[in-house]
Amino acid sequence: MTDAHNRSDRFELIAACDESVLARFANEILESDPPLTIRQEPKPTLLMQQVREPVERRPFNLGEVVVTPAEVSLDGERGFAMRPGKAEREALSGAIVDAAVAGGHNRTAAMVDELEAAGEQRAASRDREWAESRHTAVEFETMEDEL
Amino acid sequence: MGYVAVKAGEEIIERAADLFEKQRLDGEDETLSVDQIEGQLDRLTAQAMSEAGLYAPRLAALAVKQAQGDTVEAAFLLRAYRSTLERWDETVTADPSEMFATRRVSPAYKDVPGGQILGPTKDYTQRLLDFNLETDHEDDEPDDPTADWEVDETEPEQLTNVMEVLREEGLVHEPEHEFDGEPADTTRESVTHPVDRDEVLQELARGETGAVTALGYSALRGYGQVHPTLAEVRVGKLPVKIEHPYTDEEVRVTDIELSESEAVVPVYAKREDPQFAFGYGLTFGRNERKAIAMTILDASIQLDSESEPAENPEFVLDVVDGMDSFGFIEHLKLPHYVTFQSILDRIRGIRHRAGVGSAAGVDDEAKNGDEAENTERDDSEQTPMEINNDD
């Protein structure tokens, strides 16, 4: 079970959460006009994906992945989020949600529920995908005895 | 001689671009959406991402739309976009065994641990046109062909890598020294020869699919020593992880789809201890053909032979990049008036000194018969070199 109160878990849940959910919570949080500082503007940036080749175990650079990070300070609490792709609004919303949960905002319980639901949805989707793939498992038989 | 710039009407160039755009919009059909391209033509977007060396499915779909399906042009657009972005960091180094495989087949081991999982593929069906696809868009909601499947949803298993099976038997040639440095990054520093394997793998991973396939194929057709057995081919999702800036813990940002291939190559004739040598292929998106061809090239280059094209890293890495080859080949259609005028002047001068034709021009050539044609043919052998020097 992934715990949205935990900062690292929350980062992953925010990265996987639906954009509209993040935007809705961010709007609710900002309604009361809390002090907000953008510490890192949300803009697309690159992560170089490093992979370890399995034989020599030698790392190499596979290629870059586009991600959008953002960092805010909300009511004195820092928040950080990173979303895949070019996703400025989502990243900013995510950072606001992260800071709000860290600061114990009065919507924390609802945010935690939604984030954990997003995590469960992601896990269910993977389980389904795996089950469908398993359904295509095959046992090849050599035909040498029949020749 | 360097380039000589030409200029033309900016408005005319814009008109030509408008005409190109009109081709995409011609007809009465609705415009293809980026969502549709991303969702339904993911082989195209995967190829563009792979050749760009940039994983961004949504942007790749946009690039494919803008390039009207030309994958190399789309990759060019993605690389141009990439050049505007800063790099945040490197990821935590991923181990391919972390991949959540949705497809894994082992041509080497029939009873591979974890099983042969065909996954989504039409590899084992006949290549016949499916005319039902002509009209399936008329259905409100196309039927899900897996809707009736009764499957137990369980947590994904981590499939044992075939390489580990061989390693347990001592059949893997282990490296004498573990590499503990930072891998080279060919997007920041040009490749120099002799080249290290991490550079080879990075360059092949973003090579143009057709070029990588053709060179890999050349090794199989006798222009090389490598005819590997594939230990396994996988398609799946690998987590992209960073260190969280607050907690310093490894966290997952997203998953990227990859195609992976590993090959074994027997080298018993070359070593005292008969073992396997290996080739490795890994590329963004679903592109098994490229991953397998990359595997062959990686294995070929490791032979340190250079006697065949596929074994020569300088040759392979010089020609596999789509941006390089696209740029060089297609630049030939741009104005070369000064270059050509210079060549014309030279040929006319040679012909004049040889007493064939006249220095007056091309119109006289037709009157000079076979002898003149032969002379021109001989002279023309020099021109490609001159063009190369200019370019």
UniProtKB/TrEMBL annotation, chain A:
Native source species: Halohasta litorea
Molecular function, one GO term: lyase activity
Pfam families attached to this UniProt entry: PhnG (PF06754)
Highest rank taxon of the organism: Archaea
The entry's keywords: Lyase
Name of this protein: Phosphonate C-P lyase system protein PhnG
Automatic annotation (TrEMBL), chain B:
Bias type Polar residues, positions: 382-391
Biased composition (Basic and acidic residues): 364-377
Keywords carried by this UniProt record: Lyase
Keyword Transport: no
A molecular function (GO) term: lyase activity
Keyword Lyase: yes
Region (Disordered): 358-391
Name of the protein in question: Carbon-phosphorus lyase complex subunit PhnI
